[in-house]
Amino acid sequence: MTRAIVVAAVVGGLLAPMALAAEGPAFPPGAEAREARLLARLPPAASQCAARQGRAHASGTFGDGEARAAVLGCPGGGGDIQALVFIALMESAKGAEEDLRGQLEQLQAANQAKAKQREAHALLQGERQRLAGGKDSVSDMSQMQPLRLQVYAERRNKLYETLSNMMKKAGDTDSTIVGNLK
């Protein structure tokens, strides 16, 4: 009876981060459309450079300041640093999303392996000692993977928040310019 409770608690504890990662926030509204407009407007060399910088920084924290520093050397940006920064942040966010999905797939594979091990344990009650060693290593993995998944989810959420803030600033700037023209 207690074994079933422990198994239910472990599985329940792993399903919450998996659901969070699977449903995670989408890009801020209008971000992908804005990226497409910027990519169409900028010279290919500049947009490719910004995208490369974003992908290069996808595995770490990459905020507005870091993105500005990374794209300053991009050729042919036409002085539109904000557009290059936005493209770099979008690429970084896409990379973070891919990393999170990869971690989620690894976690699901580990959960499937644990389920198979539990089935084998139920069928082979007489070999309990032999399977106990394998059970410990699986339980160690189950403690680390949700933490790793949470780190990836937090990194992705921070990138999305930065993108959203940048879009808001751009909209505010546009509104101010229009107001000053009137």
Describe the structure.
Helix content is 83%, strand content 0%. By secondary structure, it is mainly α. The longest helix is centred in the C-terminal third of the chain and has 54 residues, at 128-181. The chain starts with a helix and ends with a helix. Mean pLDDT is 76; it is low at 1-11.
- Tell me, rounded to a whole number, the average pLDDT: 76
- The share of residues in helices is over 70%
**How many structural units, i.e. domains?**
1
Structural class: mainly alpha
Order of helices and strands: HHHHHH
Largest sheet: none
As an assembly, this protein is single chain
**What is the beta-strand fraction?**
under 5%
List segments where confidence is low: pLDDT < 50 over at least 5 consecutive residues.
Answer: 1-11
Keywords:
182 residues, mainly alpha, 0% strand, elongated
Short description:
The protein has 6 helices and no strands.
Write the layout of secondary structure elements.
Layout: H1 2-23, H2 31-41, H3 44-56, H4 64-71, H5 81-123, H6 128-181
Helix pairs in contact: 1-5, 1-6, 2-5, 3-5, 4-5, 5-6
